[in-house]
Amino acid sequence: MEKRARRILYPVLLAAFVLGIGAAAYFLMPWMVRIATDAAVRDAFLESLRDKGAAGVATLIGLVFLQVVVPVLPAEALEVGAGVLYGTLGGFLACIAGHTAGSLVNYAVGRWLGAGMLAVFVKPEKLEKARGLVTGARADLVVFLLYFIPGVPKDALAYAAGLSRYPFVRFLLLSTIARIPSVISSTFVGSRLAAGDTGMAVIVFAAVAVVAVPAFFFSERILKWIGKRRPGGPPEAGADAGPQGPAGGEGRA
Hints:
This protein is mainly alpha-helical. Helix content is 76%, strand content 0%. α8 (168-194) runs antiparallel to α9 (198-217).
């Protein structure tokens, strides 16, 4: 009876998640692209958020959240905008809230829906590679580095962490702490631009780019380096790949 309920429940949850995110993406993404590419639209949008007070902060958090769940635009654009609006610290707090909420939703999707249904969002081979990275003796280092290094793809990591039963609290702490330098550097750039200090903004942006650009182009080598087989390494491909329900407590694969 329980298995039958799961077979019914998971497709319903998946459909609700896909429809909800799909609707948000359909209506919001064209607008977000205009914000990212059209300076006049971007300035008007930032001004409208400033005028809305707390509602503007909530809107910004929601946009960062959406960017994590549906990674279409670079997060840095929103983070710089947050710094322009609310300063280094205020922008940082808003962005880190949205980032954390988005990662936790992706973690929950991985934990509740299982590998079979996650294939709708992520290519199976990409998910299996990410799943191998979050298991074994160096899993904590992998999670921290992938969230710490700007430019390294990490969109499948939260799904894989949930799927592999990587401890929830550890994932929350490591992913959030690792994001701090990247996010706060972006909001600092935004705050300097708002203050007219373009020289400092360019210096910080260039310093981040020195790390981010090589990390992006050499991301495959980075993933291979930190994902080498080790004691307690990744499971065989296809193992435990079916839909999985919630498990009591936290565990490691």
